[in-house]
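Re: the request from the purification team.
They wanted to know what the chain is likely to look like in 3D before they choose a buffer screen. I agreed to run a prediction and write the result into the notebook, where they can find it.
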Amino acid sequence: MYLSGGTCVTLIMIGGGTMKIFFQIICGDTCNIYQPTTTEWYVVFACFATALAQFPNLNSIAGVSLIGAVTAISYCWLIWVVSVFKSRPLGISYDQLTAKYFDAKRIFTIFNAFGIIAFTFRGHNLVLEIQGTMPSNAKCPSRVPMWRGVKFAYAIIAMCLFPIAIGGYWAYGNLIPNGGMLNALYKYHADDTPRWLLGLTSLLVVINSLSSFQIYAMPVFDNLELRYTSKANKPCPWWLRSGFRAAFGCLAFFIAVALPFLPSLAGLIGGISLPITLAYPCFMWILIKKPQKCTGIWYVNWVLGVLGMILSILVVTAAIWNIVTIGIEIHFFKPK
């Protein structure tokens, strides 16, 4: 619930903000049409996402997942290809920041970066929900095709993210703006890149956000429907299912508008969510499998689980230190 809800709030921010950029690109500087605010674009995105979120379960959104994957690959490659093949901005530098080896600022910044990475990938724990929908038996356990699919999926992810990271560093160096490669594309190549190409990139990001919203919100819907069917002892009617989806969409929209500075807390949120990936599975395995104490596998799971908790504490500490020393701009109900 935590992973799905937080990811959907982030998707509303990304999708709504990119809708605003797409409108500005298509409309142009001389457009006299009313320019909706960021909050209004959040409303538009949330309405589209909620309207599309009427699929009954994860099995029924395989096509939506495919659309999301294709659009993600497309806009990732468009962004880094345009950035690499267009001229680099003036004043770019690749000089390494000088700092003492055991400088506290440097160490805390590194751990905060771990938190940001964890925040980026925290929604990928959804693979457990996906595996739970697959048929499994002793002869053909679900972990076999799931592991094959995970390896293929992360190979595609690597093909998208490594070119963005390497090409983005080569193209922008120390001039990469807040918001990453997409904002850098608009900032440095708005004049020398065709408008249709910039608009297509934004549109692909919006479609991907809409598709991802359906996938990450489904565990929340399943949880709510499970609670209803367990209590009422009857299937969930269609009108109640739609009501659950509408209520969740409204709640995610409210959080996105009320707390628009949440991305600034990415390191802190990522650190809090780290145990879900690095610690809880080890402890859950011990509780479920009940291995003999003081055996090799028992020690391995305990050590990995404890190390995951320690890393989470270090990341959270570094994120809090980063917020205290650098500060963040807090503006409730004022998305930009």
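For the purification team: The chain is about 70% helix and 0% strand.
Please add any questions underneath this entry.
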